Structure formats: C-alpha cells, structure tokens
Amino acid sequence: MSMAVTLIITGGEGPNYIPVSLDYDFVIASDSGYDKAKELNIVPDLVLGDMDSTNYLEEIKDSGALFYPRDKDYSDTELAIKHIESDEYILIGGGGGRIDHLLAIMALFYRYPAPKFWITADDIIIRCDKTVKLNLPIGSDISIMPISSPAKVDSDGLKWELGGYTISNSSISLSNRSEKEEVVIHTSKPVFIRLPIQLLSIFEKML
After folding, report:
1. Which CATH number among 3.90.550.10, 3.10.20.30, 3.40.50.10240, 3.50.50.60 corresponds to the domain 5-121?
2. What is the pTM of this model?
3. Contact 144, 167 (CB under 8 A)
4. CA-CA distance, 156 to 184, in Å (whole number)?
5. pLDDT in tens, 107-137
6. In sequence order, what DSSP letters do the residues of 76-107 get, joined into one string?
7. Where exactly are the structural domains of the chain?
8. How far is C-alpha 17 from the geometric centre of its chain's CA atoms?
9. Per the CATH hierarchy, to which homologous superfamily does domain 127-197 belong?
10. 3-state secondary structure of 59
11. What 3-state class would DSSP assign to 2?
C-alpha cells in the first residue's frame, strides 16, 4: 500500500512547472501559494493563510478557504504543515524573496518532518533519509545540507567524495560535482540534497 502524500504550494518563488510524474493525493495552497497553483493549473483541495499576499482574494473568499489573522503565531507555511494528514508531503515554492522567510521555513524542519521534495524557482531539494541514488549528467552541481542534526555522509560518484564526512550547520558540502552518471549518497541522519532547477526534467525521470 502506497503512502499518502500532500502537495503544499506556498508563497515565494516556485518552479514554472512540476513533473507530471510527481505523485500526490491532496493539495494545500497557503496564501499566495494559491497564485502559484493557478499558474501550475493545479486546483487546491484546501486554501489557508492570512491572504495578505495573494492577488486572488475575492476568488479565495468563495473557495471555502481557512482565513487566519495577519498577526498570528504561525507562518502560512507552518499552518499548511500543521494541516497535513498524510504520511509525506512535497513543498513547492518558498524560494527567492526575503532571507528571513527562507530561514523561517528551514527552522520548521526542527519541529516538523522535512518534505520529501522541495522545489523552488532555483532549486530541487531531495530529502535523503538513508540512501539515495541519482542518475545525473557528469558535472552536475550537488550540495548536501543537514536538516535538523549532524549526519555522517558517504558518497560515490562525486568529485570530492565525502567518506564519512560530518555534515552540520557549520560544515556542508557546497557545490560539489558529479563525476559518474550514477551518484550514491548514504547518510546516518536525514540530509537535504540540492540540485539546480535546470535538472528538473532529469529529476522527473528519477521519480
């Protein structure tokens, strides 16, 4: 039995399209994530937030959305995560814009499970819980970052192999590169693997 997956579309810069092979069961749009959902031709099952950033306020009012006050204890993205009832979720958007918004999203992953995938206008971020195999063009940029705790990471197929290197908030693998068509990452704790958005069509083939 496959696990249920929620697609969260949040504010901030997101991709121009999402892979058609991306599998999800329920869609939540938070605030201006509704605008991005319309761009992607995706109809949300739930819209929520304070709606201070959307260009479709009147349309949202007629959609049965959950409205929250602007002065609240949770960001719109956190509200969406709190409403997830599935086993996993995929995050779309949240890129570009203010650095405090980006850091606020990253801070959520200390309190909530991290997304299976996170796709922004510039990034494809893959959560690696233990082992991930990536089929990439040689020379592809790869960065590896911690999620909520340090992790010992091994690799095969990178220019600078990690060999049990500890990835932490003070020491990440930034702009490494693939030297084989198959790259294998193994980690002791969950980490994020970041690929450039230009590889989205290749990422789609790996789904």
Report:
1. 3.40.50.10240
2. 0.95
3. yes
4. 5
5. 999 999 999 999 999 999 999 999 999 999 9
6. HHHHHHHT--SSEEEEE--BSS-HHHHHHHHH
7. 5-121, 127-197
8. 14
9. Thiamin pyrophosphokinase, thiamin-binding domain (2.60.120.320)
10. helix
11. coil
